[in-house]
Specification:
Blueprint: H1 12-24, E1 29-33, H2 34-47, E2 52-56, H3 63-71, E3 75-78, H4 81-90, E4 97-99, H5 106-115, E5 119-122, H6 125-134, E6 139-144, H7 172-180, E7 185-191, H8 200-217, E8 222-224, H9 235-248, E9 252-255, H10 259-262, E10 266-277, E11 281-285, H11 294-298, E12 304-306, E13 313-319, E14 328-336, E15 343-346, E16 368-371, E17 376-380, H12 385-389
Parallel strand pairs: 1-16, 2-3, 2-9, 3-4, 4-5, 5-6, 6-7, 7-8, 8-9, 11-13
Antiparallel strand pairs: 1-10, 10-11, 10-15, 12-15, 13-14, 16-17
Helix pairs in contact: 3-4, 8-9
């Protein structure tokens, strides 16, 4: 299943700023439009009035973005010990960080005891038993696997019954009994259906599962309905249902948006370095799978905007520099014919681009830039050659 998404063009001001950035920084680089992030946050707050927003920081964990979200009242959702440490470094307090994830080892819980215990999302009975033993006074939510046929890529459908996430509905009662007989503070239940969801019907089905669980096992202080909002999802329709459900059960509504907030704010800027014809027509670029793995991993489709003009058009596959046949960032896209050095902006690169980047083939990670509306801020320096080797003996 390919993941085609709605396409929002770059703001003209940001587009021109990218050309300026390309004169100052080597390609490839990531660039983010702060105004778009803030607009997406405002859109979520309008669609879900009164909800607590826990930004899913795995989408893009840069400190420069986290601090700005903190300034505007957002909290964060982490899924690793490193992300918890990063959240604290950005200035979030323990009750503003929710730690989810399918495995919480004794070593992780010991470290949390040392650095500060966030709110815990417990994903399994094994997680629950360890938390009772090692962090007995923690605030927790239990994650539910709703066992639904979620419509998205197989790797992203966390709400399907066969996924590794959460506790099946029929096991929630026994898990709650264990938790309530301990000293844990059980805040509520948590559901996360998947990522890049475009159909309100998926949310309606998930909300029906939560409605029944809250009716059977409540009351609870909190109802965490997760995130996964696709870029083209009708937020108003979903928001109305979510608000109504939380109010019905007198619970605080929590949400975990990630990609929705940052994807369309970011681009990966790359240069063209020639055309190569085999049985396909390839445009050779200096960005590839080390900077953007989603096309290879999920079949994700990222729109591409040329930052140059030419009335002559041609159709290309975008071939990255890695020695891998799968290092193709887009296929069959029509572009103005480029000259060597012309710039492309690969869109929807604000989420799961930098955060999933790698040093494969000893490739340094690119710089990351934030456009404030007045100037460029470097929020991550380009990695040096020396930094590639600094951990080796």
């Amino acid at each position: 299943m390919s993941m085609s998404q709605s396409y929002t063009a770059l703001r003209p001001e940001f587009r021109e700023a990218l050309k300026e950035a390309a004169r100052l920084f080597p390609t490839p680089f990531y660039a983010y439009d702060l105004q778009v992030i803030l607009e997406r946050l405002e859109r979520l707050q309008k669609a879900f009035p009164g909800a607590e927003i826990f930004y899913a920081m795995k989408a893009n964990p840069r400190l420069g973005l986290l601090r700005r979200l903190l300034e505007r009242g957002a909290f964060v959702e982490a899924v690793s010990l490193g992300e918890v440490y990063r959240a604290y470094k950005a200035g979030f307090q323990r009750n503003e960080v929710l730690l989810n994830g399918p495995v919480k080892t004794p070593a992780m819980l010991e470290e949390l005891n040392r650095i500060g215990i966030p709110i815990l999302g417990l994903d399994s009975l094994a997680d629950l038993r360890r938390a009772i033993k090692m962090l007995p006074k923690a605030k927790v939510l239990l994650r539910v696997n709703p066992d639904l046929p979620i419509a998205t890529h197989d790797h992203l459908a966390t709400g399907r019954g066969e996924s590794k996430f959460g506790i099946l509905p029929e096991e929630v009662g026994a898990a709650l009994e264990q938790a309530r007989h301990s000293h844990l503070e059980v805040l509520g239940l948590h559901i996360h259906l998947g990522s890049a969801l475009e159909h309100p019907e998926d949310y309606s089905a998930g909300y029906r599962v939560m409605d029944e669980l809250y009716r059977t096992h409540g009351p609870f202080q909190v109802m965490n309905l997760g995130g996964g909002f696709g870029l083209g999802l009708d937020l108003g329709k979903v928001g109305t249902q979510a608000i109504s459900l939380a109010r019905k059960h007198s619970a605080e509504l929590w949400l975990e948006p990630g990609r929705y907030l940052v994807a369309e704010a970011g681009v990966l800027v790359t240069r063209c370095w020639g055309v190569k014809r085999t049985r396909r027509n390839y445009l050779l670029i200096d960005a590839g799978m080390s900077q953007l793995i989603r096309p290879m991993l999920y079949g994700a489709i990222h729109p591409v905007e040329p930052l140059y003009k030419n009335p002559l058009k041609e159709t290309y596959d975008l071939a990255g520099p890695a020695c891998e046949s799968g290092d193709v960032l887009a296929r069959d896209i029509t572009l103005p014919e480029p000259q060597e050095g012309d710039l492309l902006a690969i869109l929807q690169g604000g989420a799961y681009a930098s955060s999933m980047s790698s040093n494969y083939l000893d490739t340094p990670r690119p710089a990351e830039l934030l456009w404030t509306g007045q100037n460029w801020e470097v929020i991550r320096r380009q990695q040096t050659w020396e930094a590639l080797l600094e951990d080796e003996l």
